[in-house]
Amino acid sequence: MTSIPVFAINYEPDEKINISVYEKINPAIVAIDGTLEDGVSAGTGCIVSSDGVILTGFHVVEDCNDIDVTTSNGQVYKAKVIAKVKKDLALLKIEPEKPLKTVSFGNSEDVKVGQKVLAIGNPFGFTGTLTQGIVSRIDYTKNRIQTDAAINPGCSGGPLLNSSGEVIGINQSIYNPDNNISNIGIGFAIPVNEAKSFIREAQKK
Hints:
Blueprint: H1 13-25, E1 29-36, E2 39-49, E3 53-56, H2 58-61, E4 66-70, E5 76-85, E6 89-93, E7 104-105, E8 116-121, E9 129-139, E10 144-147, E11 159-161, E12 166-174, E13 187-191, H3 192-204
């Protein structure tokens, strides 16, 4: 018998970064589906503690009567809101059967225009979608990070990541002349330092 040689796939350095970040972080990202009186609200969340605390956008869960959280392995949990602020951040709590993977936070003060960023979210229900781009602009007046990484409906509350896989922002919104129906390369994220402050304050209560 003659053995068939197995050739390793030679990924480019940039591809290796994308793959590494995705495989590291995606298990700590969840899909969020909330029931409203007149429909549903969908978004993304970041697991911030292994016992089931999840960071997301306030507008994702605002006025929701019932909230379902789906982890990357397909498990569905009921969630409750445990903290929220009008700055568009919220913390949810689920009761997992075992400890969960969590995200790592970076420092948004170190963010530079032009640096590469990655986003993971659930656009239009396509769970676990990875996109990439750069930091296009930093709006110091409104305290927002602008990016051209594709962010679409369903991505709100998900992470904007640096090349080390650290969360540097929480994806919030897009600008689009067609009433924010689709992405044209102008998206905004809340700097992660604001999210870290929110979590610290919530833990004190």
